[in-house]
Design a protein that fits this description.
The chain is built from 29 helices and 18 strands. The chain is an alpha/beta fold. A hairpin with a 2-residue loop joins strand 1 and strand 2. Helix 25 crosses helix 28 and helix 28 crosses helix 29. Bound molecules: 3-hydroxybutanoyl-coenzyme A and 1,4-dihydronicotinamide adenine dinucleotide. The site of 3-hydroxybutanoyl-coenzyme A has 27 residues, from strand 6, helix 3 and helix 12.
Length: about 675
Amino acid sequence: MAEPVRYEVVDGIAVATLSNPPVNALSAALRAGLFDAVRRAEADPAVAGLVIAAEGRTFIAGADISEFGKPPASPTLAELVAALDGAAKPVVAAIHAAALGGGLEVAMACSWRVLGPKAKLGLPEVKLGLLPGSGGTQRAPRLMGAAAALRLMVAGEPLDADAAVAAGLADTVVLGDLVQAARGFAARPKPQPVSARDEGLGDRDAFEKEAAALAKRAATEPQIADCIACVRAAFEKPFAEAVAFERAAFLRLLDDPRSKALRHVFFAEREAARIAGLPKGTQPRPVARAAVLGSGTMGAGIAMCFANAGIPVRVIETDEAALARGMERIRGTYDSSVKRGSLSAETRDARLALIDGAVGLDATADADLVVEAVFEEMGLKKQIFGHLDRVTKPGTILASNTSYLDIDEMAAATSRPQDVLGMHFFSPANVMKLLEVVRAKHTSPEALATATEIGRKLAKVPVVVGVCHGFVGNRMLARRTQQAERLLLEGATPEQVDKALTDFGFRMGPFAMADLAGLDIGWRIRRATGKRAPVADALVEAERLGQKTRKGYYLYPEGSRTGVVDPEVTALIRRVAAQEGVEQREIGQEEILDRLVLPMVNEGARILEEGIAARPGDIDVVWLHGYNWPAWRGGPMHYADSVGLLHVVARLAAFAEATGDDTLLPADLLGRLAAEGRGFASLKAD
Ligand code: 3HC
Ligand code: NAI
C-alpha cells in the first residue's frame, strides 16, 4: 500500500501531503506518518515551517471510527495534536475539502488554517454520541468564542469556507493555488498557539445562555451535557487540565451503549448502500424522465420526491377529476412548506414546473422509470403492468410501490420481468427517508442498480429486500401489531402499551399511531383477508375510527390531537377479553416492551434466514428510516445483540409457552446464534 503521508521540502518549507483513501480518516498509519513529518520538519534546520495538505474528497474526515474500541496505537490523536501545538516551527493546515471531527482538531492545533473554496469545517462527533475528544472542545472556543463553538458542536453540521472564516475558525479563503498560499503563511514567524489564546473564549454569560437553552437535549443526550461541561471547563481550568477532563468524557461516551448504537448505524447505512451479490461493473441506466401512476396519498408524495431532485415527472390518473385532486394535493403540500418558511416561493414554482399531469397509461411512453402507486389490488396492478409492457420504451424500469403484494406476479404480467421491481416508499413519501427496493426473481442487476441510484438521488436511504408479504418493514410491524392487540386482551391498557414504546424512544406508540392513521384501514384489510383483531374490530364496529371521529383507542376532545384515556374503551376491552375467554392480569412495563419488540427481532431473524434481507444492519436501517426507531438504540437487530441473544431466546420461549402462540417460538437462526454465544453482528453478507 502507498505511504499515507508524502513529505517533501521545497525552498525551505516542508509539505506533508495526506493520502489515505477514501476519506483520509486518521488511522494509526496516517497519524504515524504525520507525526513523523512534524518531527522531521522540526529537526531539519533548513526547514522554516510545515504545511499539511491532503489529496482526495476530504481533507481529513476525522478519527478512524473503525478503530474505536480497539487498543489505542501510539502516536494517539492526542499525542499528534500535542506535537502540532507544541512545535517550535509554524504549521499550516491547507484545507481543500471537509475537515471534520479529529480532522478539524488537527487543523485547530496548527498555527493557521487556510481554506480552499470547497472547504467545510465541522465537529460532527455528537451524531455518533461522542464529543470532540482531542482538544476540540478547548481550541474551538478559543478561536470562535465559547458560545459559537458550543453551537457548532451540538449542531454537528459543518460551516462552509466563508462562514468558517467569518466565525474566526479559519484565517482565509484562497481561490488560487491553496498549497502555495499556505507555504506563504508557513514562512511567517510562529504565532501564539491556539491553546494559549484564552482571550478568544469571549463572554461567559453568552456561553451560559447558550448552554441553558440546551437543557432539554442535555437531559437525554449525554454527549450534549458533556459538550457543555467541557466548554465550561475552558473558562474554569488550565488548558492541560481541561483537555484531560475532555478526554475522560470522550472515553466515557465511547463506552456508552448509545454511542455504540450510533456508530453501528453509521456503518450499517453505508453498508446498506452496497447491493449484496451485484456483479462488479454493473451500470445503472440513466433516468431523465419519470412517471408516477396514481396521485393519491403515496403517488403525490412520490412525484414530489422526483421534482425535489430536479427530475421531470408525469403524474398519471384515471380521469381528469382525480388528476386535478392529485395536482391540488401536491400544490397544497408545497404551499404549506412556503407558509412555514421551509421553502421559497421560487423553489416551489421551479419544482411544480417539473411536474405535469396526464390521463391514461399511454402517457408513460417517454418515461425511463415508472412508479406504480394505484390501489392495493393485484388484479388492477397486473393489468397495469401488462399495459405498461406494451407502451413503455425497452429498458424502462417498471416499479411498484405496493405495500404487501407479490412483485413476481406483477412481473409475470409483462414480457420483461428483468425490468420489474418494487420501490416501496413510506408515508409521507416526501418526508420519510426509507426506500425498500424489492428485488424480484428475475430483476436484472442493472434495474436494481438503477432503482437504488435513483433512490439516493431522491435523498432516500435505499435498502434492497426480497419478495415476501410486507417485505422487511411491514412484515416485522405486523408482529408488533399482533402483540399489541393481544396485550390489550391480556389486561394491558392502550396507554401502557404506548408508553412502553415512547419510553423506549419511539415518538408514538402503536395505538396513538392507529388513531392517527384511522382504524378503518386495518379493518378493511382484515375483512379482505379473513383475519380478525377482536379489540380493533370492536372499536370500528362502535364507530370509533380514531382522530377523524374524535374517538378511537383514546378520546380526542374538540380541537385536540392528543388523546386522553376513555373509560369506555377500558370497559370495551374487558368485555371483548371475556368473550374471547382471555383472563386479564396486571402486566409490567418490561414485559410489555419485550412482547412488542422481541417478536419483531424474531421475525427479523426469519427474514435473514430466508435471505429477504442480506444483512442484519439492513433491517436496522429499514426500522430507523421507515418507522423512526430511535437511532441511539441502533435498530432492532442491534438492540437484540445489545441485550444478548440468549436473553431474547429465553424471553420468546417463555412468551410462546404462556400464550400458546407458536409464532413466538424463537427462529432457528436466533436459537443457533444464541447457543453459539454469537450476535447478529457476527453474520457476514455474501
Ligand atoms: N472513519 C472510518 N471510516 C470512515 C470515516 C471515519 N471517520 N468517515 C467515512 N468513512 C468511510 C465510510 O465508512 C465509507 O466506507 P465504505 O466505502 O467502506 O462504506 C467511506 O469512508 C466513504 O464514506 P461516505 O460513503 O460517507 O462518503 P461521502 O463522501 O458520502 O461522505 C464524509 C464523506 C462527509 C466524510 C462522511 O463519510 C462522514 O460524515 N464521515 C464521518 C465524519 C465524522 O463523524 N467524523 C468524526 C469522527 S469521530 C472523531 O473524529 C473523534 C475525535 O474527536 C477524537
Ligand atoms: P390512494 O387510494 O390514496 O391513491 C391511489 C390513487 O391511484 C387514486 O388517486 C386513484 O385514482 C389512482 N388510480 C387507481 N387506478 C389507477 C390507474 N389505473 N391509473 C392511474 N391511477 C389510478 O392509495 P395510496 O395510499 O396512495 O396507496 C397506493 C399504493 O401505495 C398502494 O399499493 C399501497 O399499498 C401503497 N402504499 C401505501 C402507503 C400508505 O401509507 N398509504 C405506504 C406505502 C405504500
